[in-house]
Specification:
The protein is an alpha/beta fold. The chain is built from 7 helices and 6 strands, in the order ββαααβαβαβαβα. Helix 2 packs across helix 3.
């Protein structure tokens, strides 16, 4: 069972705690991780991109010139695809749905694999609690510097406070989420994972 230090917000070690092997110490499944990230990115797509075909482009209600006698090829409408300003052939449609699905067991396996990778890289920082005394961004920066989490950081808590939200929202390298919102993509994208002791217990209870 992997161990890690439980820290205070001042960076002081309180004690060692044990992490559940079934969550933080499994054999990672790279294929499931890949499929879940692919699903996550696909489900974020709005699918609102579209072009107009020849029936949707305005104009072109009459023949551009008579059928015979001009020397030109016969044409029925200037909105045909080969005319400038005409309709687009086989373009994207707004009706396309990019949503993908995945079994619950696979989702959990992907998240456990991501957490295992972070634990193996010593990138998990467990704190007793993560509170913000003020709503100032500079105070939050000092806390993160103390915890040596100045790179891209994911903060996982069980309860959001106004000070915590306000002090982190202007930091581009910090994402704040609840324990029930943690996903594989966010875990793998961060350099450091700061998680409270209560959030660890919640995630282990859900994923064990």
């Amino acid at each position: 069972m992997p161990k890690t230090a439980l820290l205070s917000l001042k960076g002081e070690k309180i004690k060692d705690i044990k992490l559940n092997d079934n969550v933080w110490g499994i054999t990672p499944n790279d294929q499931v991780v890949y499929e879940h990230i692919n699903l996550f990115m696909a489900n974020k797509r709005q699918g609102t991109h579209a072009v107009k075909n020849r029936s949707e482009v305005s104009g072109g209600g009459r023949k551009p010139w008579r059928q015979k006698g001009t020397g030109n090829a016969r044409q029925g409408s200037i909105r045909a695809p080969h005319f400038v300003g005409g309709g687009v052939v086989f373009g994207p449609s707004a009706n396309r749905n990019y949503t993908k699905k995945m079994n619950k067991k696979e989702r959990r396996l992907a998240l456990k694999s991501a957490l295992t990778y972070k634990a193996g890289d010593k990138a998990v920082i467990v704190v007793e609690k993560f509170d913000a005394e003020t709503n100032k961004t500079k105070d939050m920066i000092k806390v993160l510097e103390t915890l040596k989490a100045t790179d891209k950081t994911l903060i996982v808590v069980t309860e959001l406070t106004d000070n915590l939200i306000l002090s982190t929202r202007n930091l581009n390298n910090v994402k704040l989420v609840l324990a029930n919102e943690v996903n594989t993509y966010d875990v793998l994208c961060c350099e450091k994972l700061i998680i409270t002791q209560d959030a660890v217990k919640y995630i282990e209870e859900v994923l064990k």
